Amino acid sequence: MNATYREEQVAYRQPWLLWPMLLVIAILLYGVYRQIGLKIPLGNNPVPDAVLVVIALLFIGFSFALLRIRLRYEIGSFGVKLTYWPFITREHLIPSGDIQQIEVVKYKPISEYGGWGYRYSLKNKGKAYTISGRYGIRVLLKNGTHVLLGTSEPDAAGAYLSKLDLR
Description:
- By secondary structure, the protein is an alpha+beta fold.
- The protein has four helices and nine strands.
- The protein has a domain at 12-68.
């Protein structure tokens, strides 16, 4: 089989996370404007202007980075290629010769991996690269370790994997 299975997931675009982030950014920017632009101190013991600006810039930078997290992977007869920006910026290859088994599984993100993201298992299940959801592609390596790739399309991934020959 020469075709490949590709998936890309973009992190944290859920409204329940975006609105609070935007609210905090708006409050921080208003605080900077009020204290520096209008010269009205925030509270009875205001933080220095430079500290306020640094806090605002750090939170805005963190928010921007959080919104840019991206999981990309490709599976084929060559094995698995993946990137997980900003954690894995260069393409990482798991050669087909290192793979013992690959399958779609339903997993418990909180109890098995401590949540979503770039995780190490709490229960000796290896590494996980996930964005959201409860389905993943579990890659069992010949050395006994596991790698879990989150998938938003478990049916399509399963159909592809059932035809994949990694010999």
